[in-house]
Amino acid sequence: MSSEEILLSLQDVSVSYSIRSGFFKWARSFPLREICFDLHRGETVGVIGRNGAGKSTLLRLIAGIIEPDKGQVLNHGARVSLLSLGLGFVPHLSGRENAVLNGILLGLRLREIKARMDAIVDFSGLGEFIDWPLRTYSAGMRARLGFSVAIQTDSDILLIDEILGVGDEEFRAKSNAEIKKLLRSEKTVVLVSHQLPAVKELCDRVVWIEDGGIKDSGDTQSVVGRYVEGMRATA
Predict the structure, then answer these.
(1) Domain range holding 94?
(2) pTM, full prediction
(3) How far apart are CA 227 and CA 49, in angstroms?
(4) Is residue 6 assigned to a domain?
(5) How many folded domains does the chain comprise?
(6) At CA 9, angle to CA 5 and CA 15, rounded to 5?
(7) Where are the alpha helices (DSSP H) in the chain?
């Protein structure tokens, strides 16, 4: 449940970049247009929409990775972490070295990562493979490592970008249980996922992004229902 305390506000924010439209021509693309909403302490907000609708761009904006072209992102002193699997992974480095780099990118200090390394290795189940080069890892092993580092963050706002259901069946159960534990805490969570049953189960409210703008927002069951109807109508 959300409280009245606002941690972060998006006020009419737009993000654009140039794309080539011809040999000598450029045009502006707007992955986000005039986005407005607040994030309250302790709430879980689901973000849904088609591929390419602007969901991941929205998370990068909230995380401060990119700046808006228009509007303001007002952060009222909240620590923000973007949990995106494989962020900053380098193939020729070992799993342990990548865990350190990944942790730093997520906002942890070096001493914090070292103190939590045993927990990272234990949760990932990689064992001796933690010191093997990342290029030798399967996709499932990379997912295990990325998730195990991501859950070590200690932030006020967690931005979760499509990391539900990673790895093999055993690890999916383990990781989903950990995600649910995080979502039931006092942290504010923004969850991007195509897994609508998980969104309905976990989220207090939902924002539907379509063509870079907010198509709908509000009560989880209602918005997800309208989203499903819309997808069926355009199928």
Answers:
(1) 81-154
(2) 0.80
(3) 8
(4) no
(5) 1
(6) 165
(7) 55-63, 95-105, 110-124, 139-150, 169-183, 196-202, 220-234
Give a yes or no: residue 211 inside a domain: no
Q: Per-residue pLDDT tens for 86-115?
A: 567 899 999 999 999 988 887 889 999 999
Q: What does 194-208 look like in DSSP terms, one character per residue?
A: S-HHHHHHH-SEEEE
Model confidence pLDDT, tens digit, residues 49-92 = 998 889 989 999 998 888 999 999 999 999 888 877 656 789 99
Give pLDDT, residue 2: 46
223 in a structural domain = no
Helix axes 110-124, 139-150, angle to 10 degrees: 130
Confirm whether 228 is domain-assigned.
Answer: no
Contact 120, 153 (CB under 8 A): no
- Write out pLDDT tens, residues 168-200: 777 777 877 887 787 777 789 899 988 899 899
For residue 132, the domain's CATH number is 1.10.8
Question: Which structure tokens are listed for 98?
Answer: 């990548």
Q: Is the dihedral of CA 201, 203, 206, 209 positive or negative?
A: negative
Cα separation, 56 vs 161, in Å, equals 7
CA distance 235 to 219: 24
217 close to 58: Cβ distance less than 8 angstroms: no
